[in-house]
Write the structure tokens for this entry.
Amino acid sequence: MTSQPARSALPEVDLNFTPRFRPFYAHEISGYERELNKLVLPGEFRALTEQPRLQLQACRLRSGGLVVSLEATPVCVRHRAEHAADVQHAEFLASFVIAGHGVIEQNEATLPLEPGDIIFRTTALPSEIRMFTDSRLVVVKGPLSRLLGAHSLAMSQFTAQRAIASLPMVQTAHRCLRHVFFDKVESNPASSLFAEQALLALLASIYTSQALEKIPSAARAPADNWQVLASYIEAHITDPELSVQAVADALRVSPRWVHRLFKMRSLQYTSYVREHRLQLAKEALEDPRQWHVEVKDIAFSCGFHHASHFIRRFHERFGMPPAQYRKAVRKDNSPA
């Protein structure tokens, strides 16, 4: 089997957005192997029974990444070093064990897989998973930064983790997974997005609660502080009065503390906030549901005081005024 970079696989697969899965049909094991190569990571797929049966389906997460559901008779999937993604494009794989028993190996760790567990691994390191019984796994895949947040820099080496079924937060994550993907309840795109984000936040909380214990407190503190600061700013990014003083007052810290955290990451507060607001406005201009909203109203809704200032900054950042950008998006998305 010819290896290929994992990061180039995703665009080759046409998937529905969550929660609608697209089923994949194949008449032989090699067909499923090809699909898994594109969806998850190139590897070697081997059946451990004479009459293998598989069912594969997948969907795309609205905020990036995907979810793969695999039901199979006993199988072994091996990802060698040449299959691994480079560190800059590393992704996490969170495997929900719905049914079945097996083991997973990565980075010198051998972890059992039992129903109700969640197993964390990364596409940047070789791994092997063996299911000894009929099984069903639901694998959530996304950028490693989504899992580690501000701690990405502190985690010099990813450690595979097993979150056991008896942990209350793991049980909550399984219930959330069922709600997002398998409950037969119609939901609007906004509701689906928030539910999806809740699931990813749960996974991040479960993984970091175990993995970060291995990082000394002194090394962890700056990342913890930045996570608090960045999360507050993100939650209030549309507030036009979001000054350094306002953030400091809300978090009960000094403005100097805020500036120091930004300096540690070679960032400036004003540029950071402006970039996030511009990205938010760009997404609004691309959204067909907001094409009737005037540019000045989008500017105000994204935290800009003046439409003229927004238009000038948008042009500097993206190479054209916002109205022209929206027109170009609409043209690209119009039926041929």
